[in-house]
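Closing statement on the calcium ion sub-project.
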Amino acid sequence: MADKRKLTSDEIRERFQEALNGGHIYVCYQPQINHMTGRMTGAEALMRWDDPEYGPQNPADFIPCLEEADLILRADLFVFREVCSLLSYCRDSGHAMVPISVNMSRYDIYNNHRYVEEIEKIRHEYGIPVSCLRIEITEGSAIGGLELITSVLDKMHEIGYIVEMDDFGSGYSSLNILKDLDVDIIKLDMRFLDGEIGGRGGTIISSMVQMTKWLQTPVIAEGVETPEQADYMRSIGCYNVQGFLYSKPLIKEEFLKQSEKYDFEPQNTRAGLLDDIDAGKFWNPDSMETLLFNNFVGPAAIYSYENGKIEMLKVNRKYVNEIGMNVNEDILLTKSPVDSMNERDRAAYEETLKKAIESGEEEECETWHEVSSKCCGDDMVCIRSSLRLIGSAGEQYLFFVGIRNITAEKIRFDSLVESEKKFRMASEQNNTFAWEYEIQTKRMRPCARCMRELGLPALLENYPEPVIESGLFPAEIADKYREWHRRLAEGEKQLAGIMPLTEDRIPFMVRYTTEFDENGRPYKAYGSATEVRGYDMNWQKKTVTAE
Ligand code: C2E
Ligand code: CA
Ligand code: CA
């Protein structure tokens, strides 16, 4: 037998159909247990591939390959069919029908919008009640727009599927995702926790918080390996756990045997679990809210705003890290977030807070902060904050604030603006006409000298047509000049040549230099035209003759 190894992506492509037919691809089931009662509440179906030649394959390797090869839909529908077949076996043989979660890849809905129709066909074929099936989606399914995933979610909900948010908190904007995607259960992977469980922080006096709006969704803890983890989750009100502590994923026969040992207990969705949340819990360092806040949302803080005074009540570790500079949490908490801003930014920030109070929506602003730390000294950082009102009591308002450090982006942008300015000034002195051409929009912005001496407006659309029409670029070179702009759009880095300009056909050296964006697409071209003497009307170098 050959050595065990990973299949290459070509092998995965080639062997897929045979693996399906030959039973090398199959499904394992991992029980989900209520840690309080010891009963089973459900199970997750996990795909397995055991190659006869190279041995068991890791889903983390072959799933992305199947996604790339456009085979994932077939694989996922195979899993769904296996699950339905198992459930129908349970029904017919008197086993309990525990709800089984099936993973949906985001690619299942990308190219083929019929995912829901396909699983429905299979479900009906086996006559399985929809309450026995759950679909796990990830935050990644919203990549490339919310519209598609939202419509798929709506369709599934209409039919009655329970939808779970898998791997919650592994993405960047977890909080927004919960706001945007209407899921019924959240799965937290204990392996994503950074730092110890239980955690620090949260010594602040309780206040009225309605943050629980986005928490009123039951939670399953996944990847639970130790009794301590399970106990901790139980202590904060999360009873449902899935992980090696209770069971590894099991082949069908094993799973059936195991599930006979457990009583079955239906899991509540919505309400129930987190029903009795009160504001105090949010400030309690050992609450579910604190766990989520510290570990499963991006860089975030809670601010209060009262009579023009802004105070920071709670920050998570990611927030502190995002600010960088090695500042510590205590320093952040003793200062108002606006202390480090200049007058103008502070006013803008307050305006944004007021706007957020009025609109009830998320509002954004960008502010510069002077930050100092023992190791790095003083520096300026630019922060983009998105502010959302989460509660109010009398004159006091509470905000959830997500931040991003955009200093590097900002500096890059500012230096670009600066270099453009220099470029324009230099062209003034050099007897050069200069302009910028935006390749995608075909907009041209001329230098002051072009405007002054050639009478051009500050912005020309559909460039170069207006200057051809006006005769600045005469008819005989019009096509050549148009061709240049096509080449710029195709990514030409530099263009240069002598062109006769104006009615007088004065020879100019016309140049373009292209700038590319971070994806390597041509984005802007800098044009210049400098009069060249010593060339005659036929654009040949004059021979110097003695007169
Ligand atoms: P996932 O959906 O987050 O699945 C949970 C993973 O955690 C499984 O890995 C499971 O074996 C593992 N796990 C469960 N409890 C523990 C624990 O206590 N400790 C540790 N260290 N691991 C634990 P697996 O089976 O390797 O699957 C990996 C990923 O592959 C899944 O992550 C899922 O994203 C994907 N996947 C698996 N089956 C399917 C499928 O049928 N369709 C699709 N589209 N993706 C699948
Ligand atoms: Ca999953
Ligand atoms: Ca997971």
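The domain at 414-531 is CATH 3.30.450.20 (Beta-Lactamase). With this model delivered, the sub-project is considered complete and its resources will be redirected to Aim 3.
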